[in-house]
Fold:
Amino acid sequence: MIKENILALALLFLSLGSCNSTPDNTDPVWGSLDFIDLTGQVMETDSLPLPYRITISTEEKLLFVVNRQGNNNGYIWVFDLVSGNFLKSFLRSGAGPGELLHVGHLQILDQELVVFGTLEKKLLIYDLQGIRAEGLPMPKQVITIKANSVRSPYMINNNLIVDTRFNFKEDSIARLNFYNGEGELVSISGGFPDASADLGPVHLTEAYRCFVGVNAGKVVLTNAYTDLMEIYDEQGNLLEVVNGPDNFEPLMKPRESGGGVMIAPTSETRRAYSFVSVGNDEILSFYSGELNSKSQNNKRRFVLFSSSGEPLKSYNLDIPILHFDVDWESRVVYGVTDEYKDGDNELAVITYKLD
Structure:
């Protein structure tokens, strides 16, 4: 029976892949937009950990870098945003008070730093002003997300949290989960593209894997394996679906896993978007368009959109970055890289000025 299911799924995804007809060596062209070359500037900082994520607070002039290794030095490293001086590190790896086993992402919400603990399904909330004070900061609030599967929750405000939904049942398929300030599920919302009609609920989640950006009352989803961007309001109403330049579907293949059938990218799967930052009036995201197995452009290319999804500009980066945050007022992008060559040092904070 499993083999029959695998064969059926293989035929299904081959048919979906027929939409993926743009030549592999064709650069994505957003209407009449040409790529603008940006030259990165290395920000002088004290020694960096192995970087994983970066977030900035422009009001408090703080730069946060997530240490991929955690360990006793702490997951969160704090630098002065202006001088680059190291201020402190905190949040050690562990299961005790004020510790996490893994950090998923950071978020600045008003005067608070929100840290997502992946394995614990928790959001740790810190007062930004208290981070500069002496001693190790402790969270002023901890929210546990009450769900079987938690992916990448972001706080819209103190009473509303959004996350992409992992679908298990046919009768409750949706794109987004909304939780209250206690971490309790209050609503589900959003649908999937028409091409997904024949996919099961679990497969939908994998085929339409996406990245989340939240700001100004909007929730933006950028898809990894199809060049679609979706813009929702904070109630989960779909405002815009933005078609990419290449119009390709998420080409996947079935594979056996734990006695069942899952799906995974194939050698022909293409990479679309990755991380996204949402400003009051604009949206910035990585975009590739290349084969997933060969793509490096998901760390070297940005596309800038209006808040309604109209493509405005596209950029090539001379130094690849792993993750980024944006000072929208000064239009400066802060990114972390592990590919900067300066003697033996490959770790750096890189800034790019958006023109």
Notes: The chain is about 10% helix and 40% strand. Helices lie at 2-17, 128-131, 201-207.
